[in-house]
Specification:
240 residues, 6-stranded parallel sheet, 8 strands, alpha/beta, binds magnesium ion, two-stranded antiparallel ribbon, Rossmann fold
Length: 240
Amino acid sequence: MPPLPKAILFDLDDTLIRAYAQPEEAWTRLLNGFAAPLNAHEAAAIERIRVAVMDEARAVWADPAAAARWRLNIPGARRLAVRRGLASLGRADEALADRIADAFTEMRRTEYRLYPDAHATVDALRDAGVKLALVTNGGAETQRAKIERFDLGHRFHHIQIEGEFGQGKPELAVYRHALARLDVDAGDAWMVGDNFEWEVVAPQRLGMVGVWYDPFETGVPAHAPARPARIIKRLAELVE
Ligand SMILES: [Mg+2]
């Protein structure tokens, strides 16, 4: 076992479970299923709609204050993005947009997957005496359902969900609360996750060690305001 800290805070979505990664492929696949009602019978037509929807989704998520509200209602954010995406192509149809958005939400939910080394890694850390917290943004019901579905609840000493706690990453109060619940100082704790701002920049501001999970090897963002203390491509690297 390599040197380990007293405590580790884990992110949930796209860290322990695959949830929202690689949206381009997912949207293309979903939109192909709506080719007839969209009257989009060629790949280029599907691609135009995908780009329009994803551009609008980025706009919805760009404002941090708005994003903090939409995180508690991701299906609603998707409806808005698809409505606006279709409208931007001159094809405003809210009923069709909502059907598409809801189908995407259901497809994503069906396809959530536990990363294959997640349970073994978390259990090995816990057995090694590391205090563990799960710190996740999002709505209480949505996140609790994932925690139950993937048998994660009993594996952590503390579980903190944005929708229950009332604040989400990257608010520093979020990390401070989790550290207090685990009774450790920031300097004795790692934050592990896939979101560069939430799991590297913000926690390192507090003196924690940010371990960036980059399974698709996207690389540190250009002009990043901080460097991760460590980058891992697989969770099991933490215990190897
Ligand atoms: Mg994440």
